[in-house]
Amino acid sequence: MPGSPDISKGEDFIRTYDLLDHLIADVNRAFEILESDKSSQYLRRCVARTVFAFVEGLIQIVKFEINTDIRMEGYSIDLSHNEKEVLSEQKIVNGKSIFIQIPVDKNFKKTFQLAAKLWNLNDYILHTDGDDYQNFLQAKKARNRLTHPRNYYDLQVTDYDMHCYAATFFWSKRAFETLFKKKIESIAADLPKEIRDKFLSRKSDNSSER
Description:
Blueprint: H1 16-34, H2 41-73, H3 81-88, E1 90-93, E2 96-99, H4 104-118, H5 131-147, H6 159-189, H7 193-209
């Protein structure tokens, strides 16, 4: 059975920091174990699954932050119909709200772009025009074959697939870290200098511990 929050201990429903830490640890552990037998198809598939659990987890963490800011900070930004669907992963059909499945590449891109828009991060760019993003798209195709196999060969993870999975992990992690670094800098810019320096120092210390 999936775990559930213990409200008596003050646990929330998402626990974003714990989620992020465990997702990163899973990916690192999967690659570490793979070193013992790099040709193992089972271990390669474990890497694929942990990498995309990480990517999809990042999406949900960013959406949680967006929804929290909208609710707590009272942002007056007008979201388009498409942005609302991406954020909620729901759409209205015949007057009823239904969940929708958004392709992971579109979900990642739209969510990060929406966060940058909401937080007024005009200098944040999610790079989707280089080799890293193309590796992400190739990794997605390979992952889809694993999760929906039609034949034996769909379960085989090639060396090129492994390259794409590794590139996807580092690209998405870097995009996430840059997004929140820009957000912190944006918040700090509006603070008095003495408070700003302490704020940035504290955030830097927290990041180094992670």
